[in-house]
Specification:
The protein is 30% helix and 8% strand. The protein is elongated, with a radius of gyration of 38 Å.
């Protein structure tokens, strides 16, 4: 079949498609249009359009070979902030950047229990000095005020200097005061600080296998006399293999 330029011009009209035969119409619909025509008027080879993998969400994309970049983000980074200029009555400007970095570094190097006890010594709870709102039933949302202190070495002596909440949190690398709020609850119930301790790891998970069961399974596997690998000596004697003839039924 030879297709001329006149046929291509008529193909844009709806009537041109109705003049085709049934076989030509099916071929036209399968290829998604008319075939390419060369300069001499003959039909050129038609390459069916194959949809890309991006149009099918269920398929996996081909590996591009690019190296995956992982970002090693620090959980509580050091915040290099300028001294607070809002609270002039507090001594935020007396804490230098070197002192802030020393406090931040020593705080996150401590263990959990000593970290909380050190944090509890820097927070003091006092009654509210002045209330701007009065209630008839004496039920207030705020029942205490918090004072924050940071240590500073002055003439070979460590003194605690009162700072604002923003300077206190920036020095320790805290973005929210959730840790301070939970700590204040402990301070109310335990002034001495005996209950401020680490509770993680004291309770075993429900799916943990006991040591006795592990020893029984290990002794049962060793009863089949596993052997060391002969093709990779570097893994011996860490990795051992059972005979290939051994199955679950046997």
């Amino acid at each position: 079949m030879v297709i001329t330029n006149q046929d291509i011009e008529r193909a844009d009209l709806p009537i041109a498609f109705t003049e085709m035969s049934v076989t030509e119409a099916v071929e036209h619909d399968r290829l998604g249009g008319l075939p390419n025509v060369s300069d001499n008027g003959e039909a050129a080879a038609v390459t069916p359009m194959v949809p890309s993998l991006a149009s099918h969400p269920g398929r996996r994309r081909a590996k591009s070979g690019e190296v995956k970049v992982t970002q090693d983000k620090q959980k509580h980074p050091f915040i290099d902030s300028s001294p607070c200029e809002r609270y002039f009555r507090k001594h935020c400007e007396d804490i230098t950047r070197e002192n802030n970095f020393t406090i931040w570094n020593s705080f996150w190097e401590e263990q959990y229990e000593s970290k909380l006890k050190g944090l509890a010594s820097c927070v003091r709870l006092i009654p509210v000095n002045r209330r701007r709102v009065k209630f008839t039933k004496q039920i207030f949302k705020k029942n205490e005020s918090r004072l924050y202190f940071l240590p500073k070495v002055v003439q070979h002596l460590t003194k605690k200097i009162q700072v604002c909440k923003k300077t206190f949190m920036n020095t320790l690398g805290l973005k929210t005061d959730g840790l301070i709020t939970e700590l204040c609850k402990k301070i109310k119930s335990d002034i001495v600080g005996q209950n401020v301790c680490e509770n993680s790891g004291k309770r075993a998970p429900q799916n943990k296998v006991s040591v006795e069961i592990r020893e029984k399974v290990t002794s049962h596997i060793n009863g089949f006399k596993p052997c060391t690998p002969h093709f990779q000596r570097k893994n011996a004697p860490i990795v051992k293999y059972l005979p290939s003839s051994l199955t679950i039924e046997n």
